[in-house]
Specification:
This protein is an alpha+beta fold. The protein contains ten helices and seven strands.
């Protein structure tokens, strides 16, 4: 735009009507006017080049990159070297967006793969043992055994579906949580009693120390937290082992700690325990579907709390939940 204006001006400058000096309309000599116009032309070209390089070129690059993103290509990173603040911020936001989209794509692929595996295993068991049950030569003991396997596989499918629905609902439940004051110690005691058969069958000793704490939160969701954490502690504690459960209030903070003396976790496992579908047992032979701890993390997060885990192989695991009063 600048160069077009300057060329038009220069054309008019050398038009015959402008070559003759007109001392009656301008106090400046013709030579000075020509010099000024040439300088304007040069400045116009420089400004145009500057605008093209600093503004239009980055915008064009961003436009082309957006087209690539629209095609599903998230392996893009734009240089954030512009000295123009707005352009630099725009580029930084684009890079952040692509990074997030890339993470979502990776998670989506992992999610599909994990869900497919989790559904496929019990369904294959149901189909296989249902076929065997059709045989006429089975003993009553075999029939009972196969029926039990089918029932357990059905429960596993039901639990998986239920956890997926719960997690999906909780991940979209930012706006509203029904809260009420309740006795947190009483709730934890109820979770321990609910799981009594599991810890008593393994002859696990419990060391319980609970302060009487009134907490304002969602009672149903937090009960799910204690059930999952205590169930996990029982699951990974050997027969005759020990679990410590404590509840303490310090100022405006409430701490719930559940510790076991089980097999513990390596740093690599500990790093991923709150990720969906993550299981340290890659063979999926152990009970669970990798959704219990992500559910716990999400519920604590909705209550604006923190959950932290400390663990070493052979030294057990300690989960600490911190809630603000």
């Amino acid at each position: 735009m600048f160069s077009f204006f300057s060329l038009s001006t220069l054309f008019n400058l050398f038009h015959p009507n402008h070559l003759a000096p007109d001392t009656t309309t301008s106090p400046f000599p013709l030579g000075i006017r020509i010099l000024v116009l040439i300088m304007c032309f040069i400045v116009g070209i420089l400004i145009e080049q500057f605008v093209n390089k600093k503004i239009f070129q980055p915008i064009n690059t961003l436009n082309q990159s957006m087209k690539e993103v629209a095609k599903g290509n998230f392996n893009l990173t734009l240089a954030e070297k512009s000295k123009i603040v707005e352009v630099q911020e725009m580029t930084a936001h684009f890079n952040q967006m692509v990074k997030e989209l890339s993470s979502i794509e990776i998670f989506r692929n992992d999610f599909i793969s994990s869900v497919s595996h989790e559904f496929k295993t019990p369904m294959a068991a149901i189909e296989g043992y249902a076929t065997l049950l059709q045989g006429d030569s089975l003993s009553d003991q075999e029939r009972q055994e196969y029926a039990t396997i089918i029932m357990n596989s059905t429960k596993r499918l039901s639990k998986l579906s239920d956890n997926i629905l719960k997690l999906s609902r909780l991940e979209n439940q930012e706006l509203f949580l029904e809260k009420a004051k309740f006795n947190l110690a009483e709730q934890i005691r109820m979770a321990i009693l609910t799981l009594e058969r599991e810890w008593s069958d393994k002859k696990i000793g419990l060391d319980i120390e609970l302060d009487e704490v009134e907490y304002d939160g969602n009672q149903d969701l937090l009960f799910q937290v204690w059930m999952n954490l205590i169930h996990n502690a029982i699951k990974f504690t050997p027969n005759g082992g020990k679990i410590n459960i404590s509840l303490k209030q310090v100022g405006t903070q409430t701490f719930v700690q559940i510790a076991d003396n089980g097999e513990g976790m390596s740093p690599g496992v500990r790093k991923h325990v709150f990720e969906k579908f993550y299981q340290s047992d890659k063979s999926h032979h152990s009970e669970g579907n990798g959704l219990g701890l992500p559910l716990v993390w999400r519920i604590i997060n909705l209550h604006e709390g923190i959950i932290h885990v400390e663990s070493e192989v052979g030294a057990g695991s300690t989960f600490t939940v911190t809630l603000m009063s």
